[in-house]
UniProtKB/TrEMBL annotation, chains A, B:
The gene is pheA. Residues 2-182 form the Prephenate dehydratase domain. This is Prephenate dehydratase. One of its GO terms (biological process) is L-phenylalanine biosynthetic process. The lineage of its organism: Bacteria, Bacillati, Bacillota, Bacilli, Bacillales. Residues 201-278 form the ACT domain. The keyword Lyase applies.
Amino acid sequence: MKIGYLGPKATFTEAAAALLFPSQPREPYDTIPDCIDAAAAGEIEAAVVPLENALEGSVNLTLDYLIHEQPLPIIGEIVVPIEQHLMVHPYFTPHWREVKEVYSHSHAIAQCRKFLHTVLKGAKQVPMTSTSAAAKFVSEHPHLPAAAIANRLAAEKYGLVIVQENVHDYDYNHTRFIVVSRRKEPLSPASPLYAGDKTTVVVMLPQDRPGALHQVLSAFAWRRLNLTKIESRPAKTGLGNYFFIIDIDAPMDDVLIPGAIAEIEALGCTVQLLGSYPYYFA
Amino acid sequence: MKIGYLGPKATFTEAAAALLFPSQPREPYDTIPDCIDAAAAGEIEAAVVPLENALEGSVNLTLDYLIHEQPLPIIGEIVVPIEQHLMVHPYFTPHWREVKEVYSHSHAIAQCRKFLHTVLKGAKQVPMTSTSAAAKFVSEHPHLPAAAIANRLAAEKYGLVIVQENVHDYDYNHTRFIVVSRRKEPLSPASPLYAGDKTTVVVMLPQDRPGALHQVLSAFAWRRLNLTKIESRPAKTGLGNYFFIIDIDAPMDDVLIPGAIAEIEALGCTVQLLGSYPYYFA
């Protein structure tokens, strides 16, 4: 069965899907909701969508859609370093330092700012709708003195030559993707990329009052459950109301996490379990 | 003196800048770092950049850049509802239901998914680099059966007619913008949009250990300082290390907030003050 992902083809999302499901056919979807809906309808086995720091996806949308619209469980997560390369048409390889135009997604251009200001100073920066659209454009215009900034998958797909590797300014740039699926069992930890297990919950506070979040975190702290992520997000109900997305650095168990959830619910909070699943580092 | 903002023109960022600085000339910048750098160099009086949930900006970039690269103080914040409208060339107004192509930023297309699936079912959805680029394209191609999804400012700027207002799926969609400037004093609260004051700090934990965040929040909780936002973000130093961005719902004072910061530093954390400033609701 196919694996769906947020398209277009040859983006970082497809690269993440290929790492997790190397032997399955892949299908791009135009939007995050379309991709999640296809997984809910069973048209695809699983959906791979960006969760954090993605170039192409509206990142808040993924969790909002899972929380409010389509409550499919998260069955895995993968963190992929963002490696941007400068690539040109093969015809242009010897003269790449003379490129006059650089095509890429605007966020990728921003990520490669130092490189562009030094090595390709003066070249026009042209935003495209995705890094792979930029690579496609350059491959189709061999007569232009143009380069694209995109990932390795895009260079391979569109027959471009990488003339400078890792032109992004900072090495700590990563993107986080999650896998959601109708099937209840999480992904297998039998992968060399496997790094651990975690559990994600959403906590809605009963009202906005000083210290409420502190009480919620106490329930985890005294059980020595480590939290690796906590993020407040405005609730649908209007400005000033927040819910919290919390990642617990442990798999679901029979005692500790259910105990913490029961205690938080006793405080008057609503708790929604988004999944307990393995995570992978690429 | 000019006010800088993340361009292009006629986006939600320019709308936010116009609300805060109605009588000053405005200058668009291509990237968030360029805009912040111009404010740091004193070329512009202040920079208006997206902080959360923006269509055009890489949102994480704003705080990362302020924290790691260019520590300008935040002097104000404005929350603007995202109102997307369907607009066409005046020539095409009577026949707008027959449009065959809809141009917009991919995130805006995602936000108007239900409308597009019902009212304009079958119309091709074409992603552009920004909502204002989509409006510009439609204004320049009056012969095409095309519509754009963009904001009111774009309709005015490019002479398009809004044929359906508020075509976005959810009313609770807002974007948050901040103002950064070399000048130390915050924006004036003398505005009908003024909604309160807050203080933003960044806390780096000494090491990733269970309950550390809980201790940090205790310092605020027992002082009854309400937190309206808390967000963990991966640190530059690698995967698994986090820092926390915390919004305190109070202006900087002489006792409470300095006391909380001193207590958190005594725990071995590093605390960085990003600003204490008024916030506005549009």
